[in-house]
Amino acid sequence: MNAPPSTPTPPPASYRSVLAVGEFRAVFAAEILAVLGQVAAQLTLSVLVYGRTGSPLLSALVFALGFLPHLFGAALFSSITDRLPARPLLAVTALVQSATLAAMAIPGLPIPILLLLLLLSGTIAPLYQGTRAAMLPDVLPGDGYPLGRSLLRMAGQTAQIAGFAFGGALLALVGPATALLIGGGALAVSALLMWTGVRHRPARGSGAGRSLTRESLAGGARVLRSPELRRLLALSCLPPALAVTPEALAVPLTDASGGGPAQAGMLLAALPVGMIVGELTAGSLLSARTRARLAVPMAFGVFATMPLFLFAPGTTATVLLLLPCGLGFAYTLGLDRLVLDATPDEARGAVLTLFSATTMVAQGLGYAAAGALAELLPSHMVVAVAGVCGIAVVALAGRRPRRAG
């Protein structure tokens, strides 16, 4: 008797196969444009507010309002990402952010109105990010999802660095109003790419008869009630919040070791370079199952060398110590898979929106906490303390909860 023909096993996903998907290429290009536009606009607004008020506090508030509203928007409105189809929601949220930047370009707009528009943009941003994250498993099923997330992270980080240079060039060439309009134009093109490049899919849930805010808060409660999602949320937001400490203190660290702006730039580049190398290596050489199994051990790598800052290393040693910290961020590839597996399909948008927003806000708070602690301790000691705290966080959050039954 002949054995039935076996179903061929699909080849493992790779960065090449992910980039071969037309829908993902549209999402990838839209992400680059959106980050470029947002970062350039944020820099422009900071310069504009400082120029009109002379207040460092209000200028810094521009950057704070880029982080803090994320959690507000995620907590109150995240369930909309499951109620509505992804394609129109992505396009509309990007267009609203584009319109807020265009409105900021109106000459003579009062500073409080500028900050309110920035608050609106920051509240909407997590809905865009959460919708995109929830849609990505449909665009890249199976093992392609974490690789797609990895590429979007690398593109976003590169675009963020380029965005500051882009914004500075715009300010020098065309002035704040035109720079804001160009930033808004980049977001409008991003919306167009989402509308034309992403296939229509129905919403995952209806939400009929339920309050949007109540359902969004229930999504947050679902995460907090689930031991598995709680630990994954801690692994998602706390390591990045602690790992930003060397970046937050780049200038005082290099100043203490006798370096200047060029050395500070090298320090700031070390972590992102390590992150890109780490993610590309893990995504190319490790299977999806191995990446998920090694997520926690690799997360320890983020902080493995930071306690050595206790010995006040010089600038060159500092850069060399930060490179392996960046390599450890390859843990996010396995973490993305674990989060998706632990999330019910009907709540995918709300949960991933909350994860994205919490991580963003935690990083903002991490910058603030590093600066505050550096008022009391030398900068190198603050980095060492952050490293020890990071190791403790990973050790606690990395423990799997016992299964019921």
Automatic annotation (TrEMBL):
<feature type="transmembrane region" description="Helical">
    <location>
        <begin position="263"/>
        <end position="282"/>
    </location>
</feature>
<feature type="transmembrane region" description="Helical">
    <location>
        <begin position="26"/>
        <end position="51"/>
    </location>
</feature>
<dbReference type="GO" id="GO:0005886">
    <property type="term" value="C:plasma membrane"/>
</dbReference>
<dbReference type="Pfam" id="PF07690">
    <property type="entry name" value="MFS_1"/>
</dbReference>
<feature type="transmembrane region" description="Helical">
    <location>
        <begin position="294"/>
        <end position="312"/>
    </location>
</feature>
<feature type="transmembrane region" description="Helical">
    <location>
        <begin position="380"/>
        <end position="398"/>
    </location>
</feature>
<feature type="transmembrane region" description="Helical">
    <location>
        <begin position="151"/>
        <end position="173"/>
    </location>
</feature>
<dbReference type="InterPro" id="IPR036259">
    <property type="entry name" value="MFS_trans_sf"/>
</dbReference>
<keyword id="KW-1003">Cell membrane</keyword>
<keyword id="KW-0812">Transmembrane</keyword>
<feature type="transmembrane region" description="Helical">
    <location>
        <begin position="57"/>
        <end position="77"/>
    </location>
</feature>
<dbReference type="GO" id="GO:0022857">
    <property type="term" value="F:transmembrane transporter activity"/>
</dbReference>
<protein>
    <submittedName>
        <fullName>Predicted arabinose efflux permease, MFS family</fullName>
    </submittedName>
</protein>
<keyword id="KW-1133">Transmembrane helix</keyword>
<dbReference type="InterPro" id="IPR011701">
    <property type="entry name" value="MFS"/>
</dbReference>
<keyword id="KW-0472">Membrane</keyword>
